[in-house]
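Quick note —
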Amino acid sequence: MRAARLALLKGGVEALKVERLARDLRVTKGSFYWHFKDRGELCELLLREWEEELPREIIPQVGKRRGRKALQLLLQLLVKRVPLGEKGILPSDAAMFTWAAVSPEVARRVNRAERKRLQLLKQTIADPSLVEFFYLAWVGFVARGQRVPGSRRRFPDLARMMLALFSSRARSRTTVSRRD
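Predicted structure written out below.
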């Protein structure tokens, strides 16, 4: 699965060829078929793994927390997960978004997963304009990371800036409501 995640990230869905994966892993095609019925099953497992990451890994850790603490935890999780996705240890948003751009079925499933992500952000942040801003910043980060892989190293700095922006916005809203 790690080799398939890396192939998908670096070469898109076209890189998920049985022969190529077997060659890269220095195994026979028969070995591939021992683990997977066919390429379609591998593709489905990759997609399902990514779809299930939010409910299985992220939501249980963020839980019902709200506000700054919840956002801080969410950003810490992302800071840890980004390098693991680049190494093929975890699924990659970049790989899925690229795949969704060339497959209507994958796009439908990615869109459904994005709605769940946005719902989590809405529960965490509660400010619709900040939800949109944070998600678009994340998607921009992912897209740029595909074109300029070195930019991914800056995500911890970006996460701190996002948290500072959220905190500043929350403080200014509190100050305004106290004046009213």
